[in-house]
Amino acid sequence: MRILILGGDGYLGWPTALHFSVRGHEVAVVDNMLLRQMHTERGTESLTPIQSLQERVATWRQRSELDIHTFIGDLTDGEFTDHVVREFAPEAIVHYGEQPSAPYSMIDRQHAVFSQTNNVTGTLNVLFAMRDHAADCHLVKLGTMGEYGTPNIDIEEGYIEIEHRGRKDTLPFPKMPGSFYHLSKVHDSHNIHFACRTWGLRATDLNQGIVYGIETDETAGDEELITRFDYDEAFGTVLNRFCVQAVIGHPLTVYGEGGQQRGFINIRDTLQCVDLAVSNPADGGNFRVFNQFTEVFSVLELAETVRAAGAQRGIDVAVEHLPDPRVEAEHHYYNPRADRLRELGLVPRLLSDELMQSMLGIIERYQDRVIERAILPTTSWRPAEGTSGV
Ligand code: USQ
After folding, report:
1. Which of 76, 237, 379, 390 is the least crowded, having the fewest Cβ atoms under 10 Å away?
2. Which domains does the chain have, with CATH numbers?
3. Is there an atom of ligand 1 within 6 Å of 244 CB?
4. CA of 238 to the centre of ligand 1 (A)
5. Can you give the pLDDT at residue 190?
6. Where does residue 89 fall: left (phi above 0), alpha (psi -120 to 50 degrees), or beta otherwise?
7. Ligand 1 centroid to residue 237 C-alpha, Å
8. What number does the ligand 1 atom closest to the CA of 255 have?
């Protein structure tokens, strides 16, 4: 197939490009290096020493004799997006090309406005480009489990059957996201759903949980192909952060009581899920939603897991409860469904001791690169003191 990866320079986008390339697909990646620029803005960088996109593509060509096409540009530029879709004529688009951080979107007004305009405009441009130049193409869009928030009922996959005053309908599952970033994904979902209903496009929203891990089959053991690995406050996610903190002897930064529960998924399973979605496309006019995670943990459970894994390597890991910088439930009911990807054949790779040891081992190799100042949270969800907010 001809597969276009939006955000192909990122943590998941790059390994996804290699995954499809080695399986014989024609792959093109699009990126504007936004994540690299946001890291520069914050004075942080990937733990792993990643090469430029062009260098990595050249390395891949050497190693595999396979080509990956590159388009450097910004999806919020509609003419650029039209050009890419017209020129490459994809049969599937895998869309990771967004600002991915909740804390970054909560820094201040500018960062909130940027997160939503960047994400919503980019996705709208992709939808129009598909309508006008690739109407049969299947959009596989990375959404997030955070779109649902933590309601006091089971979370279904995208839709819920509701009976109201004696009448029934199947409607989008209610959304209660916890940041302007997560809200941008909700707005995307509504726009994609509308485009499917109105123009007959086909799309799958992958509501993914929190990803952890570093290596995939294609990048394992090859430093020049390794993907980025973030551990800083803005772009690092909780388990990746805890692993880095353990290795450098920093107390694990549990926000609040640590009873926050989330869905988690290993990076290799992300690739498996995206492959399953691409290989089993939605029908024309259909907007499918799959919940994409393999296990649920609380933040405190993760901290205990990392502490135990560290102990096996002789590291004495301390756990520290910081005041929660976010406004979120620190204890709550959480029972999201995730059946549809398993029905398509997903075989989960669960968080094991072996996996934890391998992650810690890789992090140890790069521990001299850790910028410790980037670890503690500085962004608060609450208005600054002296303002009139609650
Ligand atoms: N947390 C800590 N300590 C930390 C970092 C986080 O206790 O040092 C807590 C947070 O308060 C939160 C939970 O861990 O309750 C998850 O935080 P996170 O930063 O790992 O994840 P989140 O902000 O939800 O966002 C990440 C990705 C985002 C993706 C989302 C999936 O950055 O792109 O959409 O995970 S999900 O969480 O399912 O919405």
Report:
1. 390
2. 2-374 (3.40.50.720)
3. no
4. 6
5. 98
6. left
7. 5
8. 7
